[in-house]
Amino acid sequence: MKISLITEGTYPVVTGGVSTWCNQLLSGIPEHDFHVVALTGSGADKPVWEVPPNVRSLRLIPVWGPSASPLRPTLQRRRWIESTQYELTRVWDAALGSDQHDPVGRTASALQHLVGISDRVGLAHSLATRGSVAPIIAAWTRHMVSAGEPPISVADAVMAAGIVDRALALVDHRLGKVDVVHASSNGPSSLLALAQSWRHGTPILLTEHGVYLRERYLALYGANLSWPVRRAVTAFLRRLCQVVNVQAHMVLPVNQFNARWERRLGALPERIHTIPNGVDPGTFLPVTTEPDKPTISFVGRVDPLKDLETLISAFSLVRNRVPDAQLRIFGPTPAENGSYKELLVALTHTLGVADAVHWEGPSKGSRPAIEAGHVVALSSVSEGLPFTLIEAMMCGRATVNTDVGGVGECLDEEQETGMLVAARDYVAFADACVSLLSDPQLRASMGAAARQRALAEFTLERCLTRYREAYAAARSGRLLAPTQSAAVLVPPAPLAAPSSFRVDAAELGLSA
Fold it and tell me: Which pLDDT does position 491 carry in this prediction?
């Protein structure tokens, strides 16, 4: 079978949980041929993973790089530019308008026509000639101003159009004929999958790790962009994510938290099949030693979604009660997060714990970080089903975690396999860390229970078997048979577009 795996900002150019999942999938299913398409930033990114032999092709597509093809000469160029404007007007009218009159269907129709324009003359040059600026202003005036919002400025419309049109231009890239297209995220990577499906009838599989739309809400909330820009961009992304969830042959979330979001975004319950991440028990054998000083360890990229401010703030309270405690932070700092790292270092000095916080940099896998601590900490504001936690559990280490994404699904309800606190509650996080650092017997019993749960629920073999079944079903036009976990989904309320960026914490899963 030929499978196109589409990634964005992960495999093969960075390490991390999603990249680990990709590598497991490619290496663990050698009987299928994979064609990997990776969306990157500027084009300067280089692969950091050695791809397995069944990866028949690897394409890195820079989102902010040159267009896919030169402008194709045509005597009807003006006609195609006008056609592009018409479809963009439909896209933005559906994005910024109400949920009445089937905006998801209208968005899908407009995007499909834009793919048709791409096939005829290339979309990037039409967008560069006359892109989304005028359609954004028109739709904003029609829907937002009439609702009492001030007009959007031309500068803000240009900024929003620049972001969205770059994503739309990706449809100029053709993937070739494959049996299944598997997107590892919603958003731009799934837009490529949609184009492939519309061109060739290829079934789409979608696996979200963190919920793409939710993470864009979080990222844009803190971005240095005006409210109209953020509102316009997220309105487009919301409709795109809805189209993908409706059009996908199957949606394969890694946890039930994601599945609830995907149902709210339009995926039919019978097409949603949760496949939890898994790890190899033989690789993550029990850790039998502990460091000399009481130590909390973290492993993951230095990124705002990991909310290391909460971890460092909690650690400062831990030091008041466990004076010789240490915090060791393992993981890379992406180039774009350099200023965030500087903020964190400054915070350690402000709190007076800089001498006890150790920035270890990238490690070869998670095991060195797991071995380095009495306790493994995960303080994120967004997660899928985190490998860091599953690997620590498989190694028999006690953990303290924030209750986001699928983290709570990894643990038992009694928290005998790991501790769970509300996101951004650094006081509760500190209390949980102190409890474990101060009680060797509690750490040992929790670690043992965690490994038993990981062996029962989160093995790599179990995970890969389910993906094999999903690929076979998609190629033959079938759906996966329901599993017991699929039956626990709660019927959701409709997902409303946020009217402002005062996003409710409960909506994002950040409340207690």
Answer: 37
pTM: predicted TM-score of the whole model, two decimal places:
0.89
DSSP codes joined into one string, 401-412: EE--TTHHHHS-
Which residue in the block uniquely carries the two structure tokens 């650690």? 315
Note whether 91 and 112 are within 8 A (CB): no
Q: What six digits make up the tokens of 185?
A: 């995220």
Is the dihedral angle over the CA atoms 16, 365, 384, 466 positive or is it negative?
A: positive
Determine the straight-line distance between the first and last CA of the chain, rounded to whole angstroms: 45
Are 295 and 319 in contact by the 8 Å Cβ rule? The answer is no
What pLDDT is stored for residue 508 in this prediction? 47
DSSP 266: T
Write out pLDDT tens, residues 43-76. Answer: 888 999 999 999 999 999 999 877 665 555 555 6
Residues with Cβ within 8 Å of 403's Cβ and at least 6 positions away in sequence, in order, are: 420, 421, 422, 423, 512
At CA 106, angle to CA 104 and CA 109, rounded to 5?
110
Q: Which structure tokens are listed for 22?
A: 């990709």
- For residues 239 and 428, what is the distance between their CA atoms, to the nearest angstrom? 37
> What pLDDT, in 10s, does the model give residues 156-212?
999 999 999 999 999 999 998 999 999 999 999 999 999 999 999 999 999 999 999
Q: Are 200 and 2 contacting, i.e. CB atoms less than 8 angstroms apart?
A: no
What letter represents residue 56's amino acid?
R
Q: Is 456 helix (H, G, I), strand (E, B) or coil?
A: helix
Where would I find the H helices in 102-187? Answer: 103-121, 123-129, 133-139, 154-168
Query: Got the DSSP string for 215-259?
Result: HHHHHHHTSSS-HHHHHHHHHHHHHHHHHHHHH-SEE--SSHHHH
